[in-house]
Amino acid sequence: MNILEIQNCTICYQNGTPAVSDVSLSVSEGEIVSIVGESGSGKTTLIRAILGLLPPGGKVTGGSILFGGRDLVKMKEQEIQEIRGHDIAMIFQDVGAALDPIQKIKTQYSESIAVHEKKSAKEYFELAVSMLKKMHLTDTKRVMESYPFELSGGMKQRVGIAMGMTAQPKLLLADEPTSALDVTIQAQVVHEMKELRDRYGTTIILVTHNMGVASYLSDKIGVMCRSHLVEFGSRDEIIYHPKEQYTKDLLEAVPKLGGKRFAR
Ligand code: ADP
């Protein structure tokens, strides 16, 4: 069953030039889909539009985005707020920087948890602590008692990612969540995203410029080039049988490690 269907979606900013042109793609429940493509190709704009979080001046000018059959584009702000964080959560590129500077992490956690009623507060707290540990934040007690300024940038980012995951949304949107982290931690976070899907069936749409990450994580890959979705197919189709020269170039740019370019 498709959890999300984007149909002929066009998105423009003030200058009127489409940042996303006539994009259609569907995502099945429990699938991990990566959107790849060079900088400025429209990846972030597309993923932000799903939750109605376009920057000022950005507007969906055509098409629809159906979530469970309901068009998110036509929804009123109040309706979409009910979906945000609960059914669909988003992890931004700078999610760590977006933490509230004047509240302790534990307070922010309990507030984000209070929005969800699927589990008791205690169950959520335990889940939060285990999620922090999985993000390699071992001193969870200290992290929970800290204000954001007491944590490093990398730690804040991991707290933000953990928060998004603890909410256990049906659909998790992630925009380059790991690019600011060092490589070892990045690999761990990516692994945990896969675990989240395997364990809870969470559908994930990930924006990444990293083909290696896309190859490791994805069931399907969409390739964006200058506002168009130029290719969309299974991970193996895109990695081993790309049709577009643009996709071939992206794949060629990935360094080979031990003679192998792509791992699972
Ligand atoms: P990507 O995520 O692939 O790097 P973006 O979605 O950020 O691409 O950008 C797509 C296009 O939209 C680019 O041409 C970019 O300049 C434009 N754009 C992005 N954000 C804004 C904004 N806030 N205002 C105006 N134009 C924007």
The structure class reads alpha/beta
Overall spatial form: globular
Q: Uncertain regions: pLDDT < 50 for 5+ in a row?
A: none
Question: How many strands, what sense, and barrel or not for the largest sheet?
Answer: 6 strands, mixed
Secondary-structure element string:
EEEHEEHEHHHHEHEHEEHH
Range of strand content: 15-25%
Ligands bound to this protein structure: adenosine-5'-diphosphate
Quick overview of this protein structure:
By secondary structure, this protein is of the alpha/beta class.
Descriptive labels:
264 residues, four-stranded antiparallel beta sheet, globular, binds adenosine-5'-diphosphate
Can you tell me about this structure?
The chain has 264 residues and is of the alpha/beta class. The chain contains ten helices and ten strands. It has a six-stranded mixed beta sheet, sandwiched between helices. Strands 2-1-4-5 form a four-stranded antiparallel beta sheet, covered by helices on one side. Strand 9 and strand 10 (228-234) form a beta hairpin. Helix 3 packs across helix 4. The model has no long low-confidence stretch (mean pLDDT 89). The structure holds adenosine-5'-diphosphate. Adenosine-5'-diphosphate binds next to helix 1.
